[in-house]
Design a protein that fits this description.
Mean pLDDT: 88
CATH superfamily: Alpha/Beta hydrolase fold, catalytic domain
Shape: globular
Distance between the termini: 24 Å
Largest sheet: 9 strands, mixed
Order of helices and strands: HHHEEEEHEHEHEHHHHHHEHEHH
Structural class: alpha/beta
Number of helices: 15
Helix content: 25-40%
Number of strands: 9
Low-confidence stretches: 1-34
């Protein structure tokens, strides 16, 4: 990738994206949607709306059961919304006190309904990422954790996906854990952890900051953020102003960001800000996942924004989603590839230094020579160390100097 593309730790790199473009086989009828919307307006956050037993993928050697669920959650403005996701249960019966819970937050897939990971099937354009993700989750199943994985608001369910909106992602994750507890009474411990990759790493940091206050009936023990995007999130806008025709790698990503912002805050009127050349790409992004955009788009628009467009409201909105505003209230483990070309390690380290200066408990696991996906692939090592710390089996120094190992 070009140095310009990687530079976007002050821009696109800050966001963090994983090209995960699943293929959905599920369709939701108008009758189903109406029924669920009626339920969602009458129930509390985390209410379980539907459960469907599905086949356990072969890569999940330690999973005994897999379910696709829909549940009642809260949107950007606390409005009731329907969110989908999936559940993975370990083999056998829950221990006394119930299985501890891992809430998983996935990386960037896109904003179209077909990008919901809960319905990913073999042969999809980014199935390799799904397998990588499932290998990481299987480690948790082997260690006796039940896993609940949100699709996020608007992916596979009615309404748009407010991509990277901190409040929406917080709610989607928190309410997925509530929904899990209603799947099988007394099978789950109130103790839970959150882990996310890329976009999901950002969600994990939002949960670390606000999750315990948002779910006081549960006990959030800590967060693992793998290559979290979102540092200096708004910097992409002035970058595109200064570079009217960005690299294709930036151009195919930016409509996902814009669609997410527009969904979260319709007053931004994004269509009034972008140039006519950008419009076809916006239309395509509403119907494609990220990897499909990469395959189909070969030329950047001549200009992203209209000349003279007032971009201050957009910049203000994006800035409010940045991880600089997320101060954790539980211990956090950061896992970051030193050679990540999608989330700039400099931004992740800057956040680490910021929260360390604030006296927070945070650890940094640097994956030497590691790429964006290497950080996820090798996450069990850092996760084990973090669990040992939380369980009192190992002493770790918070805010230690970052020294990447010779090998990982």
């Amino acid at each position: 990738m070009s140095s310009m593309y990687r530079w976007c730790g002050a821009a696109v790199l800050a966001v963090g994206m994983v090209a995960t473009a699943p293929v959905l086989t599920r369709t939701v009828s108008a009758r189903e949607v109406g029924s669920v919307q009626t339920q969602v307006s009458a129930t509390s956050p985390g209410s379980l709306l539907s459960v469907r037993d599905t086949q356990v993928p072969a890569v999940l050697a330690h999973a005994g059961e897999r379910y696709v669920i829909t549940y009642r959650s809260r949107g950007v403005r606390n409005e009731p919304v329907v969110v989908s996701g999936y559940v993975l249960l370990p083999k056998g019966q829950p221990p006394q006190g119930g299985w501890p819970v891992l809430a998983w937050a996935h990386g960037t897939t896109g904003v179209a309904d077909t990008c919901a990971p809960s319905e990913l099937s073999p042969g999809g354009p980014e199935y390799t990422y799904q397998v990588l993700m499932e290998k990481a989750l299987d480690w948790w199943l082997a260690n006796g954790y039940a896993v609940v994985a949100t699709d996020y608001q608007g992916l596979g369910t009615p309404g748009g996906h407010p991509y990277m909106d901190a409040i929406s992602q917080l709610h989607s994750v928190d309410d997925s854990v509530r929904a899990l507890h209603r799947l099988r009474l007394h099978a789950f411990s109130p103790d839970w952890l959150v882990m996310g990759h890329s976009q999901g790493g950002t969600a994990a940091l939002a949960v670390a900051a606000h999750g315990q206050a948002d779910t006081p009936e549960l006990k959030l023990r800590g967060a693992i953020a793998i290559a979290p995007g979102g540092y200096r999130y708004s910097a992409i806008v002035p970058y595109l102003r200064e570079h009217p025709q960005p690299p294709v790698g930036v151009a195919v990503f930016f409509p996902i960001l814009l669609e997410g912002a527009q969904t979260a805050d319709p007053s931004l009127h994004v269509d009034d800000l972008i140039s006519p050349d950008m419009q076809p790409l916006m239309v395509l992004a509403r119907n494609r996942c990220l990897s499909e955009l990469r395959q189909e788009v070969h030329q950047s628009p001549a200009r992203v924004f209209k000349p003279g467009a007032d971009l201050k409201p957009l910049v203000s909105y994006l800035d409010r989603q940045a991880i600089e505003h997320m101060s954790p209230n539980v211990p956090v483990m950061i896992i970051q590839g030193e050679a990540d070309q999608l989330v700039d390690p400099r931004g992740t380290k800057a956040w680490y230094q910021q929260v360390c200066e604030a006296g927070k408990t945070v650890f940094f696991d640097a994956v030497a020579h590691g790429s964006h996906r290497d950080a996820l692939n090798q996450s069990p090592q850092g996760a084990q160390e973090f669990l040992d710390y939380l369980n009192g089996k190992k002493s770790m120094q918070s805010c230690a100097a970052i020294v990447p190992p010779n090998s990982h």
